[in-house]
Amino acid sequence: MAAGNSFFGYARGFEIRDSETIMDIIKCSLSEYYTKSLILDLYRAWPQAFIVYDNFDSVSGFIIGAKYSGTEGRILLFAVKKELRGSGIGKMLLTQELNVMMGSGLSTIRLEVRTDNEDAIRFYKKNGFSIISTLKNYYSDLSDAYLMWKII
Ligand code: ACO
Fold first, then answer.
1. Which residues pair with 88 in a beta bridge?
2. Lowest mean per-residue pLDDT among 29-33, 58-62, 72-76
3. Which atom of ligand 1 is least distant from the CA of 92?
């Protein structure tokens, strides 16, 4: 957690009742469009890897992981409400996700991030990810992604 900041809540598994809040966070934080049915499909595919941050009032962040191969995990979607960023919620969610992935026998983790998303790239580098390559025209608006990777 960043010095001087404080937060109050805990990480737990996603529940269906969180769906609308998760959709709101996605709309405000991520540039791609995702449907609620896709989000629920991702949950059903690997429920333990869909983790939310609950501050007792509401959910203020989430992370969704998936299995990319027998040994590799992937972070698919990850966001924290804008007004609460920089207070350690993202690090807590990522740590829980890595624990789930390690517990499932995965040994590496990959993700894609927009090349202009400086906050997220800095966050991932601080948390041990490295840029492996650039994926040209990766997003629907044809902007590029970095492929980032970490051994866990
Ligand atoms: N915003 C972000 N980070 C800040 C801010 C701020 N206003 N102020 C300070 N920071 C610093 C923190 O101090 C911390 O650094 P530290 O580890 O040295 O203390 C770091 O930046 C952020 O760490 P956390 O607080 O743990 O992370 P946060 O809760 O901000 O979540 C996240 C990180 C999820 C990337 C968040 O920035 C976010 O939601 N971004 C918008 C959505 C996004 O880009 N998601 C990732 C897309 S890629 C994908 O999904 C695979």
1. none
2. 29-33
3. 26
Residue nearest to atom 28 of ligand 1 (CA): 90
Beta strands in the chain (DSSP E): 10-13, 50-54, 59-67, 72-80, 108-114, 130-135, 145-151
Q: What is the rounded CA–CA span in Å between residue 142 and residue 149? A: 22
Ligand 1 centroid from CA 77, angstroms: 13
- Residue 32, pLDDT above cutoff 70: yes
CA torsion 17-20-24-26 (nearest 10°) is 70
Rounded CA separation 72/2 (Å): 29
Domains of the chain: 10-151 (3.40.630.30)
pLDDT for 1-24, tens place per residue? 443 345 689 999 999 999 999 999
Q: Is ligand 1 within 6 A of the CB of residue 80? A: yes
Q: Round the average pLDDT of the chain to a whole number and report it.
A: 94
Global pTM reads: 0.93
